[in-house]
């Protein structure tokens, strides 16, 4: 891979998730790259819409699916508007994988709490799929997932499967007012539902991703329940340009999110400059 000549991906599926979010499933055009490409859950790529630019997106597929990657995109501005309008057969650019990852090997034998809000689920989906692939290595797997309304929940097909599965405990919630009469999940913000759940910190780790305010309050609830900050992981989405630690677009103090992150523990984040 050269940063001056991105690899090419062909869109094989466009899956609508919500009114603003789609998932793209993409195949590597270069057959030998398709065979050798690998990534670790938590890493991201820079995805390019030709003529528009590039943006950072989490790789949302399982690392066990070879030759293909998926990402989920929320329409925000120029590049994401172009990417969310792609069709099957379109070609997009890809650089990566970049950044660090969730240390899933170190979590073996533990209870793993995945806590996600909105499209933040996409950044931890590859970790969840990876843990479920090796389910016997982990003691317990819990997914607490919330969105503003039922329409804004992503991966509805998978949530329906998880509800029936004995491999994972799913707790789904929507914000007050976002429910319908036949909603069978919880109603309440993710941190409030977590509070009710009262997770036990012994032999447990948490992986949290969502809007910054949700991450902040969720971490506080986990700490109140006795979780150590070093056992709480999250992934940051600072704006990026090069993805390589060169341009200084993504830094927080001396830390480059693209190179030193995007995965950090709550203990590391507590050391960041005070306004972060
Ligand atoms: C490591 C990483 C992983 C990410 N994963 C995903 C993902 O899986 N799915 C997804 O939809 N998005 C993800 N993002 C965010 C995504 O990169 C931005 O939404 C995208 O860059 C916006 O580009 P744009 O050209 O469409 O918008 P622009 O026209 O560049 O910006 C539109 C508006 O969004 C704001 N904005 C742009 N980028 C960001 C950002 N990174 N954080 C906060 N505000 C921003 C701008 O300030 C502006 O107000 C990730 C970002 C990072 C760094
Ligand atoms: S994106 Fe350029 S230094 Fe991180």
UniProtKB/TrEMBL annotation:
One GO process term, biological-process aspect: pyrimidine nucleotide biosynthetic process
Record-listed [2Fe-2S] cluster binding positions: 242, 247, 250, 258
PROSITE patterns noted in UniProt: FAD_FR
Residue intervals of the FAD-binding FR-type domain: 4-104
GO terms assigned for molecular function: 2 iron, 2 sulfur cluster binding; flavin adenine dinucleotide binding; metal ion binding; oxidoreductase activity
Keyword terms of this UniProt record: 2Fe-2S, Electron transport, FAD, Flavoprotein, Iron, Iron-sulfur, Metal-binding, Transport
Domain of life according to the entry: Bacteria
Free-text remark on how the cofactor is bound: Binds 1 [2Fe-2S] cluster per subunit.
Keyword Flavoprotein listed: yes
Cofactor(s) recorded in Swiss-Prot or TrEMBL: [2Fe-2S] cluster
Signal sequence, start to end: none
Descriptive protein name: Heterodisulfide reductase subunit F
